[in-house]
Design a protein that fits this description.
The chain is built from ten helices and seven strands. The chain is α/β, with parallel strands linked by helices. It comes from Piscinibacter koreensis.
């Protein structure tokens, strides 16, 4: 972790102090988590430096878009096809900026790491005690949540689904880095076009805001959950990114869509990214739900 601190301090000054602040806020458990991830995925100064560059670009772009959103109070008009072309199928952007940036943000942005803590206590703990630890993650992105299940549950076996070839490769590399490749299968497919096999445990992290019809997608997730199963589903609220096209303005709106799709909420969580710069200014919120089929 010291190497990342040094890279931020010398090459990406606006990120200076991020590691230290997160370490102070979350303590030894966070340090162990983050160090383990960095060592397994980014061995050597070159790979760590590339990840830091990716994060810096990702974070700067996010800040720029968020400032525009604060003024306009709307996301730019963009279709799913536009976002897919600009982001998901843009391999250079995905591999150099988007994926490493998103991965590091889960540890460096307090609201993201608090969401991980909620995942551990509200969802993963139940999976670990269950007779079946078979799971699927839809929209795997960096595969961080799949990694967390596999690493902490030796009996777990899972499948990951994503439309982005870059995300699929990244997930395979991530799972292989922790020695769990024999317990995880990556499917580069759209579950709306090719339905997935139902599972007792389902994870879907920050996908809804990327879609034109979140409720239709949630209904597909509902169909992919076995009777008695549980899902961990999250959404980004008031968070402007290049591929966010559906604007959720509150956690209540996400909850309503989950219920419309046939889910019943068991637990929920929401955390803001930072204090509003002025009264009434919208700020990013991470909202997460543990739900089962109604």
């Amino acid at each position: 972790m010291q190497s990342l601190r040094d890279v931020f301090a010398t090459r990406h000054r606006f990120s200076k102090g991020l590691v230290e602040r997160a370490q102070a806020a979350f303590g030894p458990a966070w340090s162990r988590d983050f160090e383990s991830m960095l060592v397994s995925l980014f061995p050597g100064d070159d790979r760590l430096g590339a990840a830091a560059r990716g994060y810096a670009a990702f974070a700067f772009d996010s800040m720029r878009r968020q400032k525009a959103f604060e003024a306009e109070r709307e996301y730019p008009n963009k279709t799913y096809a536009d976002a897919a072309r600009e982001v998901y199928f843009n391999e250079e952007h995905m591999e150099r900026e988007y994926l490493p940036g998103l991965l590091l943000s889960h540890f460096l942005w307090p609201h993201h790491y608090r969401q991980i803590q909620f995942f551990d206590t509200a969802f993963l703990s139940g999976l670990q005690r269950a007779e079946s630890a078979t799971f699927a993650e839809v929209g795997i992105g960096t595969a961080l949540f799949s990694r967390r299940i596999l690493e902490r549950t030796p009996s777990a076996r899972g499948d990951g689904y994503d439309i982005s070839p870059s995300s699929c490769r990244y997930a395979e590399q991530h799972v292989a880095a922790i020695g769990a490749a024999d317990r995880y299968v990556v499917h580069c497919q759209d579950i709306l076009e090719t339905p997935m096999t139902p599972v007792p445990w389902l994870v879907c992290v920050e996908v809804l805001e990327h879609l034109e019809d979140p409720v239709g997608f949630l209904r597909a997730l509902r169909s992919a959950l076995q009777p008695g199963g549980k899902a961990f589903i999250t959404a980004a609220i008031n968070a402007a990114h290049s591929d966010h096209i559906y604007l959720y303005r509150s956690a209540a709106e996400v909850e309503q869509d989950l219920e419309r799709a046939g889910f019943t909420i068991e637990q929920s969580f929401a955390a803001t990214a930072f204090a509003p710069p002025a009264p009434g200014v919208p700020v990013p919120v991470a909202a997460a739900f543990v739900a089962y089929a109604a």
